[in-house]
Amino acid sequence: MPSPRDRSDPRAWCVVAVARLGRDQPEGALEAAGEAVERDPGGEWGHRLMSLALERLGRDSEATVAAQDAVRLAPGSWAARLRFGSVLRRTPGRWRDAWAQAQQAVRFAPEQPDPHVLIGDLALARGDFRQAAAAYRTALRRDEDHPAARVNLGLTHLRWERPRDHHDPTWTVDPRETGRARRALEVWSRQVRLLAAVALTAVAVLAFWYDLRDPARAGGAAVLALMLAATVRQARRVGVWRYVPGMLARDLWLCVSVSVAVLVVAAYVTALATLPDWSPGSLVVPLVSAPATVVVEWEDLLGGFWAGLFGLVLFNGPAVLCLRVFAETWQGRPVRALAEFTAVAPERVGLRDTGVTLWIVAARLWSLVVLLAVVPPAAGEGRAALAAACVPLALLYVRWRGGLRFRAGTVLRHDWALALVLLTLLPASAALFTVGMVALLGAPAGTGAWWTVAATLSIAVLCFLVRGARAWWRRSAGPWRASLIPCEGCGPRLPGDVVPPVGLSEEVRRAFTYSRSVVLSYSDTDGPRTLAVGAVTSVSSSGELRLIATEEAWAAAARDPRVAVFVADPVERRFWAEVRGVALPDPAQDVLRVTPKHVQIAEFPGRHEARTSPRRR
Predict the structure, then answer these.
(1) What is the pLDDT of residue 234?
(2) What is the model's pLDDT at position 436?
(3) Segment of 184-188, 321-325, 430-434, 535-539 carrying the highest mean pLDDT
(4) Alpha carbons 599 and 502: distance in angstroms, whole number
């Protein structure tokens, strides 16, 4: 993008910066915005574009300073507030400030979609899905093709959890501190559970196989010292203990991991204390007397309790993993999310989230097929396998309601493993339906259908593992929920904070500067009000008006900053101008600062345009 012809025009440099941002050239955009700021330091547009370019270059601290300068120069600009709020949300501990700036942007320009999208993004970062969805729907009522609103609304349907879900953005602590605390808690949980599983297994082998009950119990008690050492070591790495309860309340699986570790330690200690006296000979001695029978029943009860403790210590990891996979598979509404992802033009983020959502759908249908393959034989009711007919119907429903009629081919061409998994569900459901029909007719069931189900389900699992290993190796999006990402500036649409400010022509500037017939219109509790303005002290280079008004106007602007200012040509009375904008009180200068949003200019009617009365006959 070449430099402008008029190199002295700051607005021309800003236009070049916007064009370079649209072509993903942040370095060139930063250069052009710097030229604009150098030629017009009082113009907020250049500072705003400089902030956006710096943010895309990863220089968030400098971007914050530039955005703050834009707000200082034009406090009534909704685009400046939007830019400031957008960059503040990336700064640790500034979520509340970002929220305040987003609220101001919505207050100044409720008709614009981007401030509502920023509100939704900030709510989504906290996990407030209801408020985020309401904000995104409000934005879509302003612009139904807004890509960020569509994609992020789909994430609310999926109950998306950001990577740092344990950290509340409203906390002033650095997220890296809570991240270190979270890793320390997870490492402690894994170490304690692993030590308990290995030690209790060794205790069981020594006590029951080699009949070394007392030495085994002593060795198991010594392992408690190792657990204590691991606890002390990891506790020293947690430097933000006062935030740990909030972290556990926000992050469900961190809470489950810590709780299971505590439960495993308690089960381990109880298992050592109640170690039964089992030996190969004593297990087969028949006791027939009444007292002996009572003793055998109590030993059996105690043995079953100990076996339960042993299973908890040994198999808690796989159990928690299965529980998490099941919970994440059935969390959210993927069909509604697909309908939002496919409602915008195909682009990178939307296609990625569509593919991950289809993996969630495939996992749900796979688990349903497994359930139908296990429950009917276990319950002795083979006719229940007829419910497998809902699997292809569910695929058709997802294709129809999820908007995949023209998007499924694009997604599946880039993910062969997903296509193969969805394809394997059809023969598996057909085989189960055949088993159900055979049971309904009372015919003997063969083993071919069950082998078909087992083979197709195994192929699906293999495809998932291969796809996950490939994603891990390439560090790309994998077939799991953690690969879902929100849309931040995705698609060809430029963000709303690049829009140019409303400029005032020279004749309008002159009219406001010299006219003494300036009228301010605002909304009051009793309806619209107008009053004459004492004077217009100045008009800034960016078009901001500084008015001397009464306290009544100040109070009205505090309630609703959207005002209109009227002025007439003070010299020839040829035209009148209406400037609609945002008025903010400035106590330091004792003026109302009006930032224009819309300017309308019209000429007064001349004598040739006057209405004439009809002739009398």
Answers:
(1) 94
(2) 86
(3) 184-188
(4) 7
Structure tokens at 371: 């359930």
Q: Which letter, b or e, does each residue of 448-468 get, where b requires 16 or more Cβ atoms within 10 Å of its Cβ?
A: ebeebbeebbebbeebbeebe
Which residue in this structure is represented by tokens 């002159």?
510
What's the DSSP call for residue 594?
E
C-alpha distances in Å from residue 123, one per residue of 133, 161, 192 = 9, 12, 36
**Contact predicate 427/459, CB 8 Å:** no
Q: Looking up tokens 């400031």, which residue turns up? A: 84
Q: Which long-range contacts (CB under 8 A, 24 or more apart) does 255-263 make?
A: 256/320, 256/323, 256/324, 257/185, 257/186, 257/189, 257/320, 258/185, 258/189, 260/189, 260/193, 260/316, 260/320, 261/188, 261/189, 261/192, 261/193, 263/312, 263/316
From residue 548, alpha-carbon distances to 516, 533, 566, 592 in Å are 12, 6, 14, 6
Q: For residue 616, what pLDDT band results from cuts at 50, 70 and 90? A: very low
pLDDT of residue 287: 35
Count of H-run helices and E-run strands, the chain: 22, 7
The burial class, CB within 10 Å (0-12 / 13-18 / 19+), for 225 is: exposed
Enter the tokens of residue 187.
Answer: 């490492």
